[in-house]
Structure to design on (73 residues):
């Protein structure tokens, strides 16, 4: 899927990252309770999703460079 539609895949991952970041805001100042855990899930989910986004972006760039090199030879 990444080879055929890299912008679509990266866009979906970025949208999930934004949603998780927004989910981390409501209970940011809480120290216990449900909002504390929901916010923690949102924050760590955002961090993991950003890591995945960076890895996929690098992979898509490498694939694109490989396609361009193959065409010029």
């Amino acid at each position: 899927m990444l080879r055929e539609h890299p912008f679509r895949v990266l866009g979906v991952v970025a949208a999930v990252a934004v949603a998780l970041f927004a989910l981390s805001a409501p209970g940011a100042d809480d120290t216990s309770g449900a909002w504390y855990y929901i916010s923690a899930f949102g924050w760590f989910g955002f961090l993991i999703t950003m890591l995945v986004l960076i890895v996929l972006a690098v992979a898509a760039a490498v694939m694109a460079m490989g396609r361009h090199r193959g065409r010029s030879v």
